[in-house]
From TrEMBL:
Residues 30-128 form the Cytochrome c domain. GO terms for molecular function: electron transfer activity; heme binding; metal ion binding. The chain crosses the membrane at residues 164-181, 215-238. It comes from the Bacteria. Keywords: Heme, Iron, Membrane, Metal-binding, Signal, Transmembrane, Transmembrane helix. Residues 1-27 form the signal peptide. CDD domains: Cytochrom_C3 (cd08168). This is Cytochrome c2.
Length: 458
């Protein structure tokens, strides 16, 4: 009896150490690499390893629960699989957590096996080192996007044309200035009462030279005038055309990261593009649907000249505008609008309906574009007009958006006369066109009024 009491304290310490060691071993039995995949698939919407998001930080959670509540991984298994049932059983710690996080109920994961949960706990206990940046992404970032290259070539061509025009105008201005100076000299000579021998020879020499080369000079001036007139006309034709325009925005937003790397569908943000007349600029609450749980950038893709801290800083700007306190996970009520710079903006006198093109013309537009560009095919109708947005770090105007550009599309895009709407609505027109042009005739948008003035201007 005395011996038992003597070693009682030592025995308790040994049992505690054994339980602690067993909890650690139990967590380490899992596969942290597979646990990382499971964690990202099931947990990252509400949890991070190093900070509280919706739920608590889960880094070292096994040791933390053991130290604070003397609970092992078995309790975590119960909590993860069905925390609601665990709370209903009267579990004190489960109910304390529920109250601490404002009665925000965690999802149940009965689909996760014990091995899956062990893997997740192993990841939270000993997360694998972050891999180096994806070489493919880095290489992709280093190379210029196809749209950027095209825009650069267009800008070079435009610059070359501008230089030719400017040179022609300078030459014309120089010749005119020379003629004015000579005429001024003649006027002064004529105003003199007497002509010196030198002045007389100068006047005679100029008059003789002018008479001799009059037709050559007139021809040269005519050619230069034609070039100048063409330059002015060409300049006027490109007024309001901003192909390649990509302004700096108040908050940096990379479509390549969102739509390209993360495969976010265009309509998740531009929800009215499919069924509305215009494709609105998304409100900031749309951004917060995701970034409420993503306070910092941890992606592999990084543009040249930037780092993860740059992207995280832009997320912080978003938080400032919407009034979001990421530490308290609550809104402060202090908001301010973002002054976005609009890139695609149709003139007021032009009627354009997104729904008509995205819904009714989706298949026809994609088919027509891919036939014209077999080496640069698209899979989403948006890209036919806006370019490959999913490859753009900074969005730019990929096309001219002139009336001629639209009409050319209407003249060459074949409509689908077999779909339910066109088959019924254009039944008589279809039969008339078949008689006029033959049964195999290509019926384009222009055949159904696509180039009538009143379709776009009324």
């Amino acid at each position: 009896m005395i011996s038992w009491r003597k070693h009682y304290k030592t025995l308790l310490i040994s049992v505690g150490l054994l339980l602690s060691a067993s909890a650690s071993v139990h967590a380490q039995d899992g596969d942290p690499v597979n646990g990382e995949k499971l964690f990202k698939a099931n947990c990252t919407a509400c949890h991070a390893l190093d900070k509280q998001i919706v739920g608590p930080a889960l880094g070292g959670i096994v040791a933390k629960v053991k130290a604070e509540q003397n609970l092992g991984p078995d309790w975590l298994h119960k909590w993860i699989k069905d925390n609601k049932a665990l709370r209903a059983s009267g579990d004190k710690y489960a109910n304390e957590i529920f109250l601490k996080f404002n009665k925000t109920e965690m999802l149940q994961f009965p689909n996760l096996t014990d091995k899956d949960i062990d893997d997740i706990l192993a990841y939270t206990t000993n997360p694998p080192a972050a891999p180096a940046a994806d070489a493919t992404a880095a290489n992709g970032a280093a190379g210029a996007d196809a749209n950027s290259v095209a825009a650069l070539e267009a800008a070079k061509n435009s610059a070359a044309t501008s230089k030719i025009i400017l040179t022609s105008l300078v030459v014309i201005a120089g010749l005119l200035l020379w003629l004015l100076l000579k005429l001024r000299q003649l006027v002064k000579i004529q105003q003199s009462q007497e002509l010196t021998d030198l002045e007389s020879s100068k006047a005679f020499s100029f008059a003789e030279t002018y008479e001799k080369y009059r037709y050559v000079g007139t021809g040269l001036l005519t050619v230069l005038a034609i070039f100048a007139a063409y330059g002015v006309w060409n300049w006027l034709m490109w007024v309001g055309v901003y192909k390649g325009y990509k302004p700096e925005q108040p908050i940096y937003f990379s479509h390549r990261i969102h739509a390209g790397v993360n495969k976010i569908d265009c309509q998740l943000c531009h929800s009215s593009a499919k069924y509305g007349k215009v494709s609105e600029i998304p409100s900031l609450n749309v951004c917060m649907n995701c970034h409420k749980m993503i306070p910092e950038y941890k992606g592999k893709y990084i543009e040249p000249g930037k780092d993860r801290d740059f992207y995280t800083g832009e997320i912080k700007k978003l938080y400032e505008h919407v009034g979001w306190d990421s530490d308290k996970m609550s809104y402060t009520g202090k908001t301010s609008p973002v002054q976005w710079t609009r890139i695609h903006n149709m003139p007021d006198f032009v009627y354009f309906n997104h729904a008509q093109h995205v819904v009714a013309g989706e298949k026809a537009i994609i088919k027509s574009f891919n036939e014209k560009h077999p080496n640069d095919k698209i899979d989403v109708v948006c890209k036919a007009c806006h370019g490959k947005i999913d490859t753009m770090n900074v969005v730019q105007m990929a096309n001219d958006f002139t009336m001629g550009w639209c009409i050319e599309c209407h003249r060459t895009t074949e409509i689908d006369m077999t779909n339910g709407y066109n088959k019924v609505y254009f039944k008589n027109l279809h039969e008339k066109l078949k008689k006029q042009y033959g049964s195999g005739a290509k019926i384009t948008v222009s055949a159904i009024g696509g180039i009538e003035c009143g379709k776009c201007h009324y």
